[in-house]
Amino acid sequence: MALTGMQIYKNLPKTNCKDCGLPTCMAFAMQVAAKQRALTDCPHISEEGQAALSEASAPPMRLVKIGANEREFQIGQETVMFRHEEKFHRPTGIAIRIPASVSDEEAGKMAAEISSRSYVRVGTTLQVRFCAVEVDGADDPAARAKTVHEKGCLATILIGEKPDKMKAAVEALKAEKPLIYAANASNVEDFASLAADAKVPLAVSGTDLEELADLTQKAKAKGTEDLVLAFQGKEIGETVRTMTIARRAALKKQFRALGYPAMVEVVAETPEEETTFASIYAAKYGGVVLINGYEPWELLPIMTTVQDIYTDPQVPNTVDAKLYEIGSPNESSPVLFTTNFSLTYYSVEGEVERSKIPAYISVVDTEGLGVLNAYAGDKISAEKVVKTLQEQKVSEKVKHHKLIIPGLLPIFRAEIEDTSEWTEVIIGPERAKEIPAFLAGAWK
Ligand code: SF4
């Protein structure tokens, strides 16, 4: 039976220390009761308190940690079916398969290359999270696992079905908490014991949800708690449907046997299809997507999807409204302004950087709206731009009076020139990608 906030509160330290990120123990208790936080998020709860509450207050989906220290990646403990209900909490991790058919040296090279796949988008670094090493076909699974771990800088997934090969690989890497992928009906006893002894997470793979639920219970009986539901993405519609049913059973029905994060091995005929399917699985509801390709063009659409899906829909994506210096601008450098919607700002910033012309960008607070939306919603005006420039003391940074304004707001030109020291307003391009050519021509 679900616990009330008051029952939980009675077992908390009641110090209101805020270490859980909430202002009071009562607020924390209410969130645990609503299944939005786990008891373990309070670092000060006593063992007795935890024991009294843990089973009944456990979140409907378990939090699973794969990898150790700075390579650790967390999946699970999601709370909603749809992003707009609250938000999705833990972004999908991309895993790249390293096949057993390559040599140890090639596997090491692949691991280093995969680890270097990292990109900055909208101010956030997007990267691959796992090297997924096939161990069944490797002559020396321990050496293979170690090589990949040492050459790369990502968490490891060990792929295999043979208990002896998997045991060798897990023993070599157990301090690094690799994910074992995957136990099935024929090896679950061995794999679950191995995972329990080594204290590493285990993925279980069944032909249907009934078998998956059976496997999680068998693994749990062997002492393995950190489980992942593994799905084979052979037929996309059917796989998404099955994953949705599993998630609904866990979150809505509190069905503990399926209360674990999901992982999908993407099966596709072409790299394009693999990228498309992986993006869909990331949106619905893969905590990990396992793929083969790792060319930038293959990864970026998946990473972009994950980033978009896992932003908080109730919080505007903003940057601080202040004056930004791009490169090392001086008193002759151009001055531009834009809005504090992060996608807008980072687009402008990226293109100014690309122009190689150091510049100042004054960011106006538009409550997280882009240029046209801000104008339509009355969140930006010529008067507000002038006031922002004054507050940011931009005129003290340069000796000229030229201001470049977004091409979407030419209507601001006359008013800014008439009411401020910015007496030469230049209408910039409408699209950020045109900024480099514009600056090269307009700023001599
Ligand atoms: Fe209370 Fe624990 Fe949160 Fe501190 S960390 S405020 S003791 S619930």
Q: What's the short version?
A:
With 444 residues, this protein is α/β, with parallel strands linked by helices. The chain has three domains: 5-46, 3-methyladenine DNA Glycosylase II, Chain A, domain 3 (Orthogonal Bundle); 63-309, TIM Barrel; 323-442, Rossmann fold (3-Layer(aba) Sandwich), CATH 3.40.50.
Question: Topology, please?
Answer:
Blueprint: H1 5-10, H2 25-33, H3 47-57, E1 63-66, E2 73-76, E3 93-98, H4 104-115, E4 118-121, E5 124-127, E6 130-134, H5 141-151, E7 155-159, H6 163-173, E8 179-183, H7 188-198, E9 202-205, H8 209-221, E10 227-233, H9 236-252, E11 262-266, H10 271-283, E12 286-291, H11 296-309, E13 323-326, E14 335-339, H12 342-355, E15 359-364, H13 371-376, H14 382-391, E16 402-405, H15 413-419, E17 424-427, H16 435-442
Parallel strand pairs: 3-6, 3-12, 6-7, 7-8, 8-9, 9-10, 10-11, 11-12, 14-15, 16-17
Antiparallel strand pairs: 1-2, 4-5, 13-15
Helix pairs in contact: 4-5, 5-6, 6-7, 7-8, 10-11, 12-16, 14-15
The structure holds iron/sulfur cluster (SF4).
